[in-house]
Write a structure and sequence with these properties.
Blueprint: E1 15-19, E2 22-25, E3 30-33, H1 36-39, H2 48-58, H3 71-82, E4 88-92, H4 95-112, E5 120-124, H5 133-139, H6 142-145, E6 155-158, H7 163-169, E7 174-179, E8 182-183, E9 189-190, H8 193-206, E10 209-213, E11 237-240, E12 251-255, H9 257-260, H10 276-289, H11 294-315, E13 320-326, E14 329-334, H12 338-349, E15 351-352, E16 354-356, E17 360-363, H13 371-394
Parallel strand pairs: 3-15, 5-6, 5-7, 7-10, 10-11
Antiparallel strand pairs: 1-2, 2-3, 4-12, 8-9, 11-12, 13-14, 14-17, 16-17
Helix pairs in contact: 2-10, 3-10, 11-13, 12-13
Length: about 400
């Protein structure tokens, strides 16, 4: 019996090594990884620059404390500021901590201005913002809230896509709107350009902060460095993680100067967040991602993946109901139970994928994936559907 908490329905499968978009289990069996540790392994497995950077950093200082200057952290923060909307960065260990920092930053901004009653945040159904008490309250999903007492107050929810419904929730206590430009866990739902622009306009009109959760859809996953770029808008605050460390635990909250100004010593902190080892890996990821052509490759591969999924929908309309997503955050709504289908892909076809939302199969390959590997994934999905056909015919 495992000594671990029983919070995961774990497979017995264990991996010993990886290479690019492949993982190898304890028996040497090779798997096609369209899971990426839930969108974390952005550069795949054992990327040479990542390995070299980790080895070099491991010979130096692993951890000090944020009471000292950390040069690798300063460098990573400046690179993020130089390549985004932000003026300031706070580093965390995870996405949910980045969201917590974003919530605190938004609320504290108005408190410092003397608008102490202004702390409510409008969020959206279908969202997933993490597992802390603040993040599950922001997400509003009853299945994540159940059993943990009274949810943290100050969040209002509405379905995404309806600007009039959002505006109806705004009052003199509202401080921010929080949204994922592409919902991952909630079913791989991409927000329209019009809706994102409309939210920016509502925030400008009513003096609110626009807070984006790009923990999953950010860091190149959408085909741009960050998904907000598709709408040609800028947020005031943004939470990022997953791909930022390429597999090393790291997250960040980015903010414009005015939004971050009130976060002075004592307002927030982190023991491990942004330590030298983590930021060395964060800088190694950016070394690769900021090379010319990287995001163009992701966008191109995202289009290839979408095309193959559309072909599957035409070929298997009885199993594929919808194709959705953005870039290499792709989803197909299927009729077979998604948990069973994920297990079938893993056990019978040696392909790793992830479920999401209302029976959606989520495909999250490393951003270095090739067209040939995408075609292989599509062929594997087709083989799985064909197997279901054969089983149904003989039942």
């Amino acid at each position: 019996m495992s000594a671990l908490y029983g919070t995961y329905a774990r497979s017995d499968l264990a991996f010993e090594r990886g290479e690019g978009v492949r993982l190898f289990d304890q028996h040497g069996t090779r798997y096609l990884d369209f899971h990426s540790g839930i969108a974390v392994n952005a550069l795949g497995h054992a990327h040479p620059h990542m390995v070299e950077s980790l080895q070099a950093a491991a010979c130096k200082v692993w951890h000090t404390s944020n009471v000292f200057t950390i040069p690798e952290q300063e460098k990573l923060a400046q690179r993020l500021v130089d390549n985004t909307f932000a003026d300031a960065v706070f580093f965390t260990n995870s996405g949910t901590e980045a969201v917590e920092c974003a919530i605190k930053t938004a609320r504290h901004h108005y408190w410092a201005k003397g608008e102490t009653e202004r702390s409510d945040i409008i969020a959206f159904t279908g969202a997933f913002h993490g597992r802390t008490m603040g993040a599950i309250a922001a997400g509003g999903n009853p299945s994540y809230l159940e059993g943990f007492g009274t949810p943290l107050a100050g969040f209002k929810h509405t379905a995404p896509g309806d600007l009039a419904a959002v505006e109806a929730l705004i009052d003199d206590k509202t401080c921010a709107i929080l949204i994922e430009p592409v919902q991952g866990e909630g079913g791989v739902t991409a927000m329209s350009v019009e809706f994102m622009r409309g939210l920016r306009a509502l925030c400008d009109t009513h003096g609110l902060l626009l807070v984006l959760d790009e923990v999953q859809c950010g860091y190149g996953r959408s085909g741009r460095f960050f998904a907000y770029d598709y709408a040609e808008i800028e947020p005031d605050i943004m939470a990022v993680a997953k791909g930022i460390g390429g597999g090393f635990p790291l997250g960040a909250c980015l903010a414009k100067g005015e939004a971050a100004k009130s976060m002075v010593p004592g307002t927030h902190g982190s023991t491990y967040g942004g330590n030298p080892l983590a930021c060395a890996m964060g800088n190694a990821v950016l070394d690769v991602m900021l090379e010319p052509g990287f995001f163009a490759h992701v966008e191109e591969m995202g289009n290839k993946l979408a095309w193959h999924m559309q072909q599957l929908q035409q070929r298997f309309p009885q199993y594929v109901l919808d194709v959705r997503g953005k870039g290499l955050l792709a989803g197909i709504k299927i009729t077979p139970p998604v948990r069973d289908f994920v297990a079938r892909l893993r056990d019978d076809h040696h392909m790793l994928a992830q479920g999401a939302g209302e029976n959606v199969l989520r495909l999250l390959p490393p951003l270095i994936v090739t067209e040939a590997e995408i075609a292989e994934a599509a062929e594997t999905l087709a083989a799985a559907f064909e197997a279901i056909d054969r089983e149904t015919a003989t039942a």
